[in-house]
Amino acid sequence: MSDAILVAMITSAVTLLGVILSNSKTAAVTNNEIKHLTEEVKKHNNFAQRIPVVEVQIEDLEKRVAALERREK
Questions:
Q1: I need a labelling partner for 23 at 20 to 30 A (CA). Which of 6, 48, 57, 68 fits?
Q2: How far apart are CA 4 and CA 10, in angstroms?
Q3: What is the band of 67 on the pLDDT scale with cuts at 50, 70, 90?
Q4: Alpha helices in 1-73 (DSSP H)
Q5: What is the rounded end-to-end Cα distance, in angstroms, of the chain?
Q6: Largest Cα–Cα distance in the chain?
Q7: What gap in Å lies between CA 29 and CA 22, rounded to an integer?
């Protein structure tokens, strides 16, 4: 085997190893970001479910305040 072929094979192997390690680190970061974003979406969904309840409570309080104001007059 010629020296050039041997050097090319070693270089290819080292490059392949570098790409595999790089991809695994990138995948780990991506998975971490996905987990973080999933948690944020869950928080947002919980907030979105509570808003209509708060709106109904505000409407009820507005009606009660209006009724109290009418009684005072």
A1: 6
A2: 10
A3: very high
A4: 3-72
A5: 105
A6: 105
A7: 11
Token pair, residue 33, equals 């970001």
Matching residue, tokens 């907030």: 47
Q: What is the pLDDT of residues 14-40, one digit of tens each?
A: 999 999 989 988 999 999 999 999 999
Pull the structure tokens for residue 68.
Answer: 């109290």
- The alpha carbon dihedral of 52, 56, 59, 65 has a sign of negative
* The token pair that represents 26 in the structure block: 């990138």
